[in-house]
């Protein structure tokens, strides 16, 4: 922690970034860390490659996040948040790697240890928890805006205090954030309370796509570009749907196959997919994702694949034999 605090204090021009296709923790950590650096008087750029999902656009100062950075902007330090691997930042990761000091702040067990300074704690419930510790070490006052972000990061990454990463700190920090003015009901309404009709129609198709392995221990849900087109939805609308596949009785591992990219694939055998994996806690899906070139946490992980849908499903269903 101390080398990171020293580096932040002596830097003048900092880039803060989190993973593309951001979840609540990625957006919240970015905002909480970025606002803290701004309060410290640092020239600060908040970057995320993807557009911010609608449900997180209520977060204070979210409009400060930009989605483009040039190749050289004179940054002396980069803080990379919630990324197990620097490539998770997106296409800018190569340029970011060249920034003189790269600080890696994360809570994924599969973290590659990239960067010059690391603060990686797999026992942290969320990256927001680690950002909270950094803010405390910097002795910066947490205002209501930062508090709302930290609370939202913890709330979303713990699945509303239900997932196995829910720890004592999740409650202790959330308690402190509510003392600082966070309104849990308001955050819950923003994040979970309202779904567009389009999203419900996509959920209908996603539920209809469910397939279960012969032994009943593995489930697969599939969302294709055709489904996005038909329901006029976006990739962000898939957020949370995998939990339906995971909650099925006797299922140990749930997979959600999500087609990537717009437009027609180059060929049926070269369709691009992201696969999310969730387990009931008895299976290490980070290890399974690792075997496919991805990573994550023991009970929530993912990987990318370029193949045909038939082949991908067959590769995944094979996993059921070892469950
Ligand atoms: P999700 O399924 O929500 O996209 O991701 C679940 C967890 O796995 C997250 O913690 C995420 O960071 C990690 N993860 C998802 N996809 C990838 C991937 O392609 N590579 C790596 N290293 N981690 C991933
Ligand atoms: Mn996270």
Question: Layout of SSEs?
Answer:
Elements: H1 2-10, E1 13-18, H2 24-39, E2 43-47, E3 65-66, E4 77-81, H3 93-97, E5 101-106, E6 117-120, H4 127-138, H5 144-157, H6 168-179, H7 184-193, H8 197-208, E7 211-212, E8 218-223, H9 225-231, H10 242-246, E9 253-259, E10 271-279, H11 285-291, E11 295-297, E12 300-307, H12 309-318
Parallel strand pairs: 1-2, 1-4, 2-3, 4-5, 5-6, 8-9
Antiparallel strand pairs: 7-8, 9-10, 10-12, 11-12
Helix pairs in contact: 2-4, 2-5, 4-5, 5-6
The structure holds guanosine-5'-monophosphate and manganese (II) ion.
Describe what this molecule looks like in 3D.
The protein is of the alpha/beta class and 323 residues long. It folds into two domains: 2-192, inorganic pyrophosphatase (n-terminal core), CATH 3.90.1640.10; 197-322, Roll (Diaminopimelate Epimerase, Chain A, domain 1). Helices cover 37% and strands 20% of the residues. It is built from twelve helices and twelve strands. The chain has helices spanning 2-10, 24-39, 93-97, 127-138, 144-157, 168-179, 184-193, 197-208, 225-231, 242-246, 285-291, 309-318, and strands at residues 13-18, 43-47, 65-66, 77-81, 101-106, 117-120, 211-212, 218-223, 253-259, 271-279, 295-297, 300-307. Strands 3-2-1-4-5-6 form a six-stranded parallel beta sheet. Helix 2 links the parallel strand 1 and strand 2 (43-47). The protein is globular and about 55 Å long. It binds guanosine-5'-monophosphate (5GP) and manganese (II) ion (MN). Manganese (II) ion binds next to loops.
